[in-house]
Amino acid sequence: KAGVTQTPRYLIKTRGQQVTLSCSPISGHRSVSWYQQTPGQGLQFLFEYFSETQRNKGNFPGRFSGRQFSNSRSEMNVSTLELGDSALYLCASSYLTSGGGQETQYFGPGTRLLVL
Amino acid sequence: QKEVEQNSGPLSVPEGAIASLNCTYSDRGSQSFFWYRQYSGKSPELIMFIYSNGDKEDGRFTAQLNKASQYVSLLIRDSQPSDSATYLCAVGGNNDMRFGAGTRLTVKP
Prior knowledge:
The complex is a heterodimer of chains A (116) and B (109). The mean pLDDT of chain A is 91. Chain A has strands at residues 5-7, 10-13, 19-24, 31-38, 42-50, 53-57, 64-68, 74-78, 87-94, 106-107, 111-115. Helix content of chain A is 0%, strand content 52%. Chain A is globular and about 35 Å long. Chain B has 109 residues and is mainly beta. Helix content of chain B is 0%, strand content 56%. Chain B has strands at 4-6, 11-14, 19-25, 32-38, 45-50, 54-58, 61-66, 71-76, 85-92, 97-99, 103-108. In chain B, the strands form 2 sheets. In chain B, strands 2, 4, 5, 9, 10 and 11 form a 6-stranded mixed β-sheet that branches. Chains A and B meet through strand 5, strand 9 and strand 10 of A and strand 4, strand 5, strand 9 and strand 10 of B.
């Protein structure tokens, strides 16, 4: 099986711009989670999508948004970029059982965003 | 109090020694527990998961879970320089996964 893929891998933007990142989960996985990772803050949970619905959201401002398509691919968008948004953005997919609970998450390679 | 706590390290052990990594969590309803390894500049990769109290062994790795104490640990036997990385503890609830800040492990030849 192919792993989780993320595009683009690297991105340079300037303050005030907006950016869209894409994630394709492992085939058969319906849950996609997004994380922001910075040296100072570690892995911070952004949101999770399951069957095109946002199931959970972390403590990030409304500038951060996402969506999931019917094929489970997901995008996240950051509007009005700030310098502090420079980070590695990781997508992780998992196969959730009908009984709920969190199954193993498999991470993509990440998108490294630099805001100048 | 953070939801998932780990000693940030760095933890330094000599090659061949046992490395012990610890993690505590605050949500008693947590159901699943994971250890990830992350090399510098790379994304996290799964090492082990554990759902039940007790020990789970996989090669040189042993995960230990004590739900009563809300504690999960990872032991790495016969540590190798290639084990040098940041180890992330993750705790899963009904709808989310919470990560610790990670422990940086250095294995010295």
